[in-house]
What we know:
This protein is mainly α. It has helices at 35-53, 58-81, and strands at residues 7-10, 13-16. It starts with 6 loop residues before the first strand and ends with a helix.
Amino acid sequence: MLKVIDAVxxxxxxxxxxxxxxxxxxxxxxxxxxxxxxxxxxxxILRAIHSKTSKFSPEEIEADIEEAIKExxxxxxxxxxxx
Length: 83
């Protein structure tokens, strides 16, 4: 299970800003990243994607995405049919 939870650190305790659907005393691991760092990483990733896709038209990119979706769905069906 992977969840991203906004929280505030206060008096030695992380307090979620919204209700979380977890069992009481469920042990989890936390990865702490500040919003500024997250935004920097996200911006870096977007720049990398744009630099690699700038030579293709939106139509070509969309066609490739559609083809990839079809391949993933086909592979999923194949895995499920083998069960």
